[in-house]
Amino acid sequence: MKITLNQQLVVKTLSIDFKPKIMPDGQLIFELNEQRKPYFITDAHREAPVGFGVKVSATKKTYYIQRRVADSDSGMQVIRATLGNVSDFENIAQAREKARKYVQDMKLTKRNPNKVQRETDASELTVKEIFEQYRNHLTTRSKPAKPNTIIVFNKAENRLKEWSDLRIKDLTGNEILRKFDEIAIRARTAAEQTFRWINVAVKHAIEIEAINAQTQQRQPSIIYNPFSILAVQKKYRTRSELEENYREKNIRNPLSPRDTLKQFLDAIYYKRFTNRLGADYLLVTILSGTRKEESASLCWRDKITDEEAKRTNFVDLKNRIIFFYDTKNRNNHTLPICDAMYRILEDRKDLVEENYIGHARLEKFVFPARSKKSKAGHYSDSKELRIKLCEEAGIIKLGVHDLRRTFGRIAEELASYAVVKRLLNHRNTTDPTERYADPDFERIKEAMQRIELNILSKSPRLYNDLLASEKYPPLPIES
Q1: What is the dihedral of CA 271, 274, 280, 283, to 10 degrees?
Q2: By C-alpha distance, which of 64, 58, 62 is closest to 15?
Q3: pLDDT tens digits for 193-224?
Q4: For the chain, which domains are there?
Q5: What is the per-residue pLDDT across 90-137, written as a single tens digit (0 to 9) for each?
Q6: Helix (H) or strand (E) holding 66
Q7: Which value, to the nearest 10 degrees, does the dihedral of the CA atoms of residues 462, 301, 364, 402 take?
Q8: What is the rounded CA–CA span in Å between residue 406 and residue 412?
Q9: Backbone angles phi and psi of 359, in degrees to 5
Q10: Which of 383, 403, 387 minimizes the C-alpha distance to 395?
Q11: Beta-carbon-side half-sphere exposure of residue 19 (alpha carbons within 13 Å)
């Protein structure tokens, strides 16, 4: 509804009980607002900025400004910002002037000026705004967070959604401890993840506010992180407690070189006759010690462009290397292709070219998806296969990451700490000695070959199938 507003009309006449209406002859009348629903009136005064008006509700009357603003992402967006209660202004002209300033801010920032102001005043930040601010940091920093990290972050925010509109400064230690226990009763790990995220998000906000305050020569408006109470009260499990919990729940199960590794590899050997794709995927994963998403998404180097190769995991058979782009610790990672791995990958190349010819989206992958309609395009879920292998091998439980743990366990017995760290791509410390002790690629290759032979020797059948030659004499097979 559009009406020319004035001070008398706004302050004394408008109410929730009666709603104004303009008759065909231009006369302004007031009708009973039986349900007492809030209503908006847009100011038609010639001095009013477009979109300026007043909202009348049961408890108060507020001025607002609403504008459609250009947005580089979605074209246009509508922003409505509250200017304040009618009683906060000496007259309507003052409210119109503030509305004009808000319009300029909207055009400049493409955001609600009230929200920008709340972020400027860090002490007024709500839980929702803290999460939004830190999410923006995670996605826009020089090395943005991985998609899986954002998924976990969003889950943490969702667990605290009932706190969305609460200001950080209003949360008490007791409330935080109660909420932690409430979530922990159902899922301890989820509780720890949730509160570690909100803790680091608040810590980040405090650091940003400290910088802003220093720049503006003022005292910071927020200096205390209420979530530090969780560390003070020892709510987070220690490393030893976590390890004990993993053992109790049978979560981490690296294969044992003494028995279960042989059983698993023997099962893999036979499974290659019926499920070559899945069996080869698990073999490459254990022989390279990589994470599941790293090996699953491998492409053939000769099937991608030079530009794609800068940001893609790939196998280069010609140069006998495997390259992993932007791994979990944000480093690129290169591994040598040793003899058995080369045989596996060489055969895979022939199989892919034979079975996926004409399917460019799939044939570029070392492990193409079974279905040509797959969104990812590559093999992604080995759970069913692992369950069957465990049944056949007499193994209780095996996760994909347990293959990486198995590789690490054997590597630790055969190579130096610096080499193992490099093979597992655990280069995330600030130890300056590490820069001087970084092993060269030839040393990495030698260690990798020893590890590969050690793993495969546990299963003579598989060893002979992949390696038996003049260089690698066949191993005797027990009857």
Answers
A1: 0
A2: 58
A3: 999 999 999 999 999 888 888 877 778 888 89
A4: 2-113 (no CATH), 124-236 (1.10.150.130), 260-467 (1.10.443.10)
A5: 999 999 999 999 999 888 888 888 877 766 677 788 999 999 999 999
A6: strand 61-71
A7: 40
A8: 10
A9: -115, 75
A10: 387
A11: 15
Q: How many helices (H) and strands (E) does the chain have?
A: 21, 11
Q: Are 404 and 285 in contact (CB under 8 A)?
A: yes
- One-letter amino acid at 146 equals K
Per DSSP, 74 falls in state T
Q: Angle at CA 383, nearest 5°, toward 377 and 386?
A: 120
CB distance 64 to 53 below 8 Å: yes
> How is residue 394 written in tokens?
């007499």
Q: Which of 462, 451, 398, 456 is nearest to 422 (CA)?
A: 451
Residue 400 and residue 381: Cα distance in Å, rounded?
Answer: 10
In whole angstroms, give the CA distance from residue 476 to residue 464: 9
Q: How far apart (Å, rounded) are the C-alpha atoms in residues 208 and 353?
A: 53
Residue 226 CA, chain-centre distance (Å), reads 24
Q: Which two tokens stand for residue 476?
A: 């005797």
Q: Name the nearest CA neighbour of 389 among 476, 250, 256, 274.
A: 274
Residue that has been written with the tokens 């009857």 in this structure = 479
Helix locations, 28-91, DSSP H: none
Tokens, residue 413:
């017995």
In the chain, which residues have pLDDT < 50? none
- Are 317 and 331 spatial neighbours (Cβ–Cβ below 8 Å)? no
SS3 190: helix
* Three-state secondary structure call for residue 312: coil
